[in-house]
Design brief:
Shape: globular
Number of strands: 19
Strand order of the largest sheet: 2-1-14-18-17
Distance between the termini: 30 Å
Strand content: 5-15%
Number of helices: 27
């Protein structure tokens, strides 16, 4: 590159003076406060994350207490660890110094806080230190292994973490963030954690009342989210709410995504670390990343953020080192993404395979290369064996995705995908790359074409492929999607921008950094110029991140909503818990379903209903507590709201069945049941509307075959009074003042034909008038095992697609659990042991000479 014109040199020298000062500071090796500054920021972040932002409502740590706690922690930490050179000791004692310092802090801080009238207790301190100690250890290991020319490395790591906090802070709450998808994810995590707490391992299907239908998604398709949440549940000593557990998992993904991106970029080019930090912050704040969490509640996709950069780092090392560890690292990173989200995993795997084809062209005669590819393939297969066998053993048919709908969605998102983010961050076009990354894309592509390095060309090729798949380029988009195999379309589903943009952003960041690092490494004025350009791009990304973060804050559920949704009598199994199965069960409703009601006895030969809990709740063993006519009172002239029943009394902790007789069965709208601890909504005339149910439905509604009763349970400490409304879909033309009649009956769950005693595992006392089949609410898949009076019995599929097994006349003690097929259990443990072995190997290898 020719030298800059002489007239411009004074200007560049003045502009780059701060960068030259930082460079001299880096190389001087005398900046002893770097670790102290990094620790200070880390202390504040940990205190805010765990207590000050309310991630754990059970621990009384307020925001006003978070800063004093952080200051106290940093004081202890500085004294015990930052000046460890005053008492040198082997590296293996470093963790003991950390534990000792934090232990002293745990003993002294509560007493000090009491004297200063700060609201802290020992439990708060212990939980914060539990999270703080591992992060301290990692920070000090990085500091101890740093190169002599990079003493500011801990500070950069902490700034990267601070950037992740800036874009992930809406999840620092004990309340749920998001809409219907978020609620479903929280239920599935709650079910998984509940089973782990009950000692069930491994978990293959839903069993608790959070997923009483035996839900298999996302557990059997993408197990990472629930397993990661389960591990965090153990690390936090089971103190977080289930919604807080989901939020911590997502926040950790943001945090790890920023750190792994920075670390991977530094591993590619070590002499431009500040540049790597800016690129990492640019990635974590881009619309392609934030839209996953805030626009679409795509929590499984968010879990891929820590591993996408590792794939490209490993891919880079296969070009530069060409050794077996690099290929094995590539296989492990890809396997982890397959566990987190298979659609994204497929496309990043395609990039990795495309990159290895570059090597194959040049090294196809190299036997060592072929051995490496074979070993990496075997490792990948072993690491993902459990997941692939899990999907295979389900034997669930996959519906074909229409390519025309994919193409229509992509056209609908254009040209908005090239424009700024919408005000509410709710548009389909908000799944986009962003102007900053498009600029980096162009820069990285030009440099890759000029230098023609295989790694950069592989990234450019993958990025161009995704561009052609996302933008409606004439004569390219439709032929390209029509040429793809149907299985690829099924896996990608209808909105490919949700899967492809985050992969494209990762490719762009690495291509841009690879192109920029060499150019600026030895030219101080180019370093300053590129840093200035990246700061402008980062400022633009920060502005575009605003609508996403605002949406995240607005989508936080209120305390009252979380309290109502968290009560067992209000939990809803959304359609997502049933959608992987071929059909919905007869009892499915979009509103609340009491799983106890969905147990019944069928005749052995005719499959006719012999007895059922749903009938017994209002039968001879029940007691009528209230009854009367339903008079619909319109709430204002022309209003669609009609009050049906007011002040219906419920005693606390008693079970009721509310039965209706409808005079107008064809009315369309919603039935709302509300009270201090009850919140229900049922669609009329059929609460299972829009679902594929084979045979007659047994869900609540006004149709002739619909169930006319709903379950009620009050957890209020005193008498609870209910109000029932009908909200019509359209203006009602007829007179509906005579709406019908209601009957409120109280029943005892222990006297039902199927008295359910527990759900994890399913245990019940069954009283049958004759030999019968017990039909449970779990959807049938292969692998269930049942016992009746201690003896194993065969498990079959009922006519409604549910799990059933035979019981004898009289009283029976039954148990139903899901150990899974032998192939599923064997593959799960095989993959688990390979993961553990790989972790031990990586840890032992890491103990070699410092390379950071």
């Amino acid at each position: 590159m020719p030298p800059a014109p002489q007239a411009a040199l004074p200007f560049f020298q003045r502009a780059a003076r701060p960068f030259r000062w930082v460079a001299r500071l880096e190389t001087s090796g005398r900046f002893a406060g770097s670790l102290a500054a990094a620790d200070f920021i880390l202390c504040i972040l940990v205190a805010l994350i765990y207590g000050g932002c309310g991630l754990n409502r059970a621990i009384p740590l307020q925001a006003s207490s978070a800063l004093p706690l952080a200051l106290a922690l940093i004081a202890f930490h500085l004294a015990a660890c930052n000046y460890a050179h005053l008492w040198p000791s082997p590296a293996r004692w470093r963790i003991l110094r950390l534990v000792a310092a934090n232990g002293i802090a745990a003993l002294i801080l509560p007493a000090t806080a009491h004297l200063l009238q700060i609201d802290l207790d020992r439990r708060s301190i212990a939980m914060v230190l539990l999270l703080f100690t591992p992060l301290q250890l990692l920070l000090h290991l990085a500091h101890a292994r740093r190169r002599s020319d990079a003493p500011l490395e801990p500070l950069r790591w902490t700034l990267a973490a601070a950037g992740a906090v800036a874009v992930g802070f809406p999840f620092l709450t004990a309340n749920l963030v998001g809409t219907g998808d978020a609620y479903w994810y929280a239920n599935m995590v709650a079910d998984f954690a509940t089973q782990w707490r009950a000692g069930v391992f491994p978990v293959f299907v839903g069993q608790s009342d959070f997923a009483f239908n035996g839900a298999v998604s996302p557990l059997r398709f993408a197990p990472y989210l629930q397993h990661a949440a389960g591990v965090l549940d153990l690390l936090t000593l089971r103190t977080l709410s289930f919604a807080g557990l989901v939020n911590l998992t997502l926040f950790t993904s943001f945090l790890a995504g920023a750190l792994t991106t920075y670390a991977s970029l530094v591993a590619i080019a070590r002499d431009t670390r500040w540049l790597a930090l800016l690129f990492a912050l640019l990635f974590i704040s881009s619309p392609s990343v934030l839209s996953l969490a805030y626009t679409g509640d795509l929590f499984m996709s968010v879990c891929t953020l820590p591993y996408l950069p590792l794939v490209l780092l490993a891919l880079h090392r296969t070009f530069t080192r060409r050794d077996l560890p690099s290929l094995c690292g590539l296989a492990a990173a890809l396997a982890m993404i397959w566990l987190a989200h298979p659609p994204i995993a497929f496309w990043i795997t395609l990039v990795a395979v495309f990159g290895q084809l570059f090597r194959l062209v040049r090294e196809w005669r190299d036997v060592t290369a072929w051995k490496g590819w074979l070993a990496a393939g075997v490792l990948f297969g072993a690491l993902t064996l459990g997941t692939f066998v899990s999907v295979w053993t389900l034997h669930i048919p996959v519906a074909a995705v229409e390519r025309s709908l994919i193409i229509d969605a992509l056209k609908q998102a254009y040209p908005g995908a090239l424009l700024p983010v919408s005000d509410g961050a709710t548009a389909l076009s908000d799944y986009q790359l962003g102007a900053s990354l498009w600029t980096v894309f162009i820069f990285g592509g030009v440099v890759a074409l000029i230098r023609r390095r295989p790694f950069e060309l592989a990234l450019l090729g993958g990025a161009l492929l995704f561009t052609f798949l996302l933008l409606p380029i004439p004569h390219v988009l439709e032929p390209l999607w029509n040429a793809l195999p149907q299985a690829v379309c099924n896996l990608t589903f209808y909105w490919p921008m949700q899967r492809l943009y985050v992969v494209l952003a990762t490719l762009v960041i690495f291509a841009g950094y690879a192109g920029a690092s060499d150019l600026v490494a030895r030219r101080w004025w180019l370093r300053g110029l590129s840093a200035g350009a990246l700061l402008i791009a980062l400022q633009w990304s920060a502005e575009q991140a605003g609508p996403f973060l605002q949406r995240g804050v607005l989508n936080r559920r209120s305390d009252a909503t979380m309290l109502a949704n968290g009560l067992p009598q209000n939990r809803i199994l959304t359609r997502y818990a049933y959608s992987p199965f071929p059909t919905y069960p007869p009892y499915f409703a979009h509103g609340y379903v009491d799983p106890v009601w969905e147990n019944r006895l069928l005749e052995p030969d005719s499959w006719r209903e012999l007895d059922a809990n749903s009938r017994a709740v209002s039968g001879a063993t029940s007691v009528v507590r209230a009854s009367g006519p339903i008079l619909a009172t319109q709430q204002g002239e022309g209003s669609k709201f009609h009050e049906l029943v007011a002040d219906l009394p419920l005693e606390p902790n008693r079970h009721y069945a509310l039965t209706f007789e409808f005079r107008h069965p064809l009315l369309r709208g919603s039935l709302l049941v509300s009270g201090p601890t009850l919140a229900r909504e049922y669609y009329l005339p059929d609460s299972s509307v829009g679902t594929a149910i084979t045979g007659p439905t047994t869900s609540f509604g006004t149709l002739p075959n619909s169930r006319k009763s709903i379950p009620l349970l009050s957890s209020s400490p005193a008498l609870e009074k209910l109000t029932i409304h009908f909200v019509s879909e359209t203006a009602v033309a007829e007179d509906i003042r005579d709406f019908g009649r209601f009957t409120l009956s109280e029943y005892d769950p222990a006297r039902l034909p199927v008295a359910v005693e527990s759900w994890v595992p399913y245990r019940a006392k069954v009283t049958s008038p004759a030999r019968a089949w017990l039909e449970t609410p779990r959807i049938f898949i292969a692998g269930y095992a049942a016992t009746v009076n201690g003896k194993s019995v065969p498990v079959s599929r009922s006519p409604g697609g549910l799990v059933m097994f035979p019981v004898g006349a009289g009283e029976n003690r039954v148990q139903l659990r899901y150990p899974g097929p032998l192939s599923l259990r064997a593959s799960y443990f095989a993959s688990l042991f390979v993961w553990l072995g790989l972790g031990v190997f990586a840890w032992r290898r890491r103990r070699g000479p410092a390379t950071a």
